């Protein structure tokens, strides 16, 4: 069954539809006060519906540009929750699946668990299992993981045919971070990423069994060549000069 993709334009319309009459007027006032070109004039928005305003913004700035303008304008009129909801719905358009790595105060890679990771670990009991954790009976099949990831990408206005993006939204089926995405793992606990790689490589030396759990540790879809994110190694990656987004997944084969 074909999945319906939510577009940026649709998300923009949904956002402005939530503004009250006065809220929309305030939004238009702020638009007219923008100093960057091209400018939006009073005449172009006066008496217009939110649908017409979105059409104007998209034709003036393109969909991606209109998204930036709407987010900035919503925040300026203190509609922060609405802006956050819109940002969440269009997240895949902004990050393209690329993780944002944390850095220490001296600019080096921060490989330790983030505060978010520590909080998640404290509120979720890891599954009892050998190796990197997790019971084979609890892991979803690869096709289920991929289908869920594509659905998430669609909900964020992303392209479900973008293999790298789908891969980033795939959820971990084992261990203390079960339920989080691969992208989240890379952003929040690099040391654990190294642990997964090392333990899985050892597991593969002793068995070729392809359970759903093992399959989740294997590269679901090859990250597109040329889009690797490289960062200097440290701690658990001391044996490598560089480590890439693709290497994380391909090493799990």
UniProtKB/TrEMBL annotation:
PROSITE patterns hit by this protein: DAPIN
Q: Where is the Pyrin domain?
A: 3-92
**Sorted alphabetically, which SMART domains does this protein's record hold?**
PYRIN
Q: Which domain of life, per UniProt?
A: Eukaryota
- A Pfam family matched by this chain, by name? PYRIN
**Per its record, how is this protein called by name?**
Pyrin domain-containing protein
The species is Mastacembelus armatus
Lineage, highest ranks first: Eukaryota, Metazoa, Chordata, Craniata, Vertebrata
């Amino acid at each position: 069954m074909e999945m319906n993709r939510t577009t940026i334009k649709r998300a923009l319309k949904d956002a402005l539809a939530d503004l009250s009459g006065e809220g929309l007027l305030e939004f238009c006032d702020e638009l007219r006060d923008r100093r960057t070109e091209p400018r939006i004039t009073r005449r172009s928005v006066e008496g217009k519906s939110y649908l017409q305003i979105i059409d104007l913004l998209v034709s003036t700035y393109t969909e991606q540009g209109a998204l930036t303008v709407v987010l900035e304008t919503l925040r300026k009129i203190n509609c922060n929750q609405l802006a956050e909801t819109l940002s969440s719905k269009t997240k895949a358009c902004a990050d393209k699946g690329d993780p944002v790595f944390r850095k220490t105060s001296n600019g080096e890679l921060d490989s330790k668990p983030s505060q978010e990771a520590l909080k998640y670990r404290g509120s979720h009991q890891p599954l009892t299992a050998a190796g990197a954790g997790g019971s084979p009976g609890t892991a979803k099949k690869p096709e289920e993981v991929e289908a869920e990831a594509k659905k998430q990408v669609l909900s964020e206005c992303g392209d479900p045919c973008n293999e790298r993006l789908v891969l980033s939204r795939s959820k971990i089926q084992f261990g203390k971070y079960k339920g989080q995405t691969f992208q989240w793992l890379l952003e929040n606990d690099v040391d654990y990423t190294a642990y997964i790689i090392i333990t899985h490589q050892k597991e593969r030396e002793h068995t070729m069994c392809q359970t759903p759990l093992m399959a989740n540790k294997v590269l679901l879809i090859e990250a597109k060549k040329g889009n690797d994110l490289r960062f200097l190694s440290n701690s658990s990656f001391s044996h490598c000069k560089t480590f890439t987004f693709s290497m994380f997944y391909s090493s799990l084969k």
